[in-house]
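User: Can you predict the 3D structure for this chain?
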Amino acid sequence: MELSFVLKGLSCPNCAAKIEREVGLVPGVVSASLNLVQQRLQINVADHDKALHYEKRIKKIVHTYEPDVVVQAQESLLRTLVFILKGLSCPNCSAKICQEVSNLASVEKANLNLLKQRLEVTTSAELAAISQQISKIVEKIEPDVQVHLEGEEASASAPQEGTRGFPFVWIGGAVFVFAFVLHSVFEISALLSFLLFACAYVLLGQSVVRRALINSLHGNIFDENFLMTVSTIGAFCIGEYPEGCAVMLFYQIGEYFQARAVRQSQRSIASLLDIRPDQARVVREGQQLEVLAKEVLLGEEILVRAGERIPLDGVIVEGTSSLDTRALTGESLPRNVGPNDQALSGCINLHGLLRLRVTASYDDSQVAKILDLVENAAAKKSPTENFITTFARWYTPLVVCLALLLATVPPLLGHGPWTEWIRRGFVFLIVSCPCALVLSIPLTFFGGIGASSKNGILVKGSNYLEGLSRLHTLVFDKTGTLSEGVFAVSKILPASGVESKTLLRYAALAESPSEHPIARSIVEAGRQADCAPGDLETCHEFSGRGMLATYQGQKLLVGNEAFLREQGLDFSACELPGTKVYVALDGRYLGVLVIQDRLRKDSREALDRLRKAGIARLVMLTGDEPRIAADVAAKLALHNYQAGLLPDQKVACLEALLKEVPTGGKLAFVGDGINDAPSLMRADIGIAMGGLGSDAAIEAADVVLMTDELSKLVTALTIAKKTMRIVWQNIALSLSIKCAFLVLGAFGLIGLWPAVFGDVGVTLLAVANALRILRLP
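Assistant: Here is the predicted structure, written as structure tokens:
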């Protein structure tokens, strides 16, 4: 197999010779040839599956001699494959699978989406080889889970989720009850008792023992299956048959309810995401056809009846209605729409028939992007979640060693009989299983992300959810974030002897031909004030300065201060913040209009609630002029502001603010578009306002608020803090109860029966607590 690499910037013959010689000595490289003129390195390798490994080694060798040379594979060695893991429901097992697949030499990265049971792998290996490796990993960790490539059918014998082996549990449970009654009430012989309990144990524990053996053969020894197998077999060895069976029975029942809890959370989140219809009613050659939504072409027209969900993004061509946008924005109030308005996929048409012209394909629609963000959010784990995974990896071997010491050291020192200390060691093993932590913590974050999306807040990972709970400083852009981004006349200041309506009428007349946002705001204000319209005889626009018009033979001037002074007018300049538009008619000064960007209605209330929620600093960074920024900062009681900033200057200000954030705290930047992208990416957490229809905001931000409501920030903080409270409750609950039971077990104060609660019972309590996050409004 031949691989070819381009070494951009290589010009030294001596270094080229050294690189060629050293690459040729890499194990697995059959031959190496470097053409200095073409800057191309060609190697022959024995194993294509290690192509990525060779590329990394070559880069290391080249950069040893020439650090500035860029190494690129002439053809991409990587491709992305998607595998379906049918039957996977355990967050702990999915984390192990993802980690082991990521560690494969031929894998660049791996991402496992538990919600969709979907493993996405970027690899340089051949399909057959990587499929075999992944199947072995999955079989080692979850033997009952089936692996198949996306698009291929799974085997017809695939087990149903949550039912694998459970008929054996019911039968085994019945045999156990029968044996227990005979053993306790009728005092049957020891041999018959052993046989009945052994039969019950085989039925109850066969799946656990089988997984323990398979995992041990693959080197994955210290897991819950190993702990249950050793402790229960040990109980049989010391004659505690009922206890050994009971531990396995309650463990299996606990596993069943754990799987149900995971499926419940999956269904709850999946129901939030079930907002994209697969069918569309397209109009082709005058006929209505029912087709798959992904088959509709750009520019085609579709019909959406009352009560139906819009399948594709489009512009309304015909019809008026109200749209229920809750699925996308969390907003309860319907949005009125008509011709030329945008209608996004996922919204529900509440009233009449709508005819839409499609503006985005099925995969590029707004709802598709949102679903993709939510579904893949679990891949970005929080520091707490990563800690729990690492903790479990070291914790289990530690407690196994402690259990072994507990069972052997005291009797060796003559502190009691072997059977008693061995029994205590088994109790220690049963209690020590870390299931409560490794299952409930990812489940809580999973639920927090789902609760956020239900409220119109897209959080792209549990790391950002945890970051929101530790927020110290919030930095806002002004235009489009704290303000509406829409200019409006805020003050009308007529000269002496001039009526306000007269001043507004002449200003609107002069500005009527212009398309400038300031001009449009004045024309709109005139329309709302019912100012009588008129026709201009002449009109000339001076870009960035003002308008010169003739009306009924009179010279009408509208513009900034400098423009009117150039025309020879003398008047007092207005000192109020905002954009000032001065008006004069036939040399007579009529007054001034003050134009401002309106603050959002909920800005002040939202910021007050953010302060009460514990945000220490509220700062504004804006490109607007200082007087306007000062006015906004005063109205909203901000702690600080900086005005007249370009995008790079905003980033510099953010850098300074980040240094002032205390250790453990986080800084978030709230912006609304492409101009804020550098700041959104530089902050600890980037929060995009008005994500509905804003691709730039969705791409750059870590959190997207799907409406223009600042109050959604308060909701996001509430959900984040609630999520972290539940996380820490579960950590405290699990560790405290387990530590207490471990101590009690070590001192012989509890037996195998209470030990079951210390494992399965605590796990179920932690999972039930985690599911509370899904009930957030």
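The first strand starts at residue 2 and ends at 8. The radius of gyration is 35 Å.
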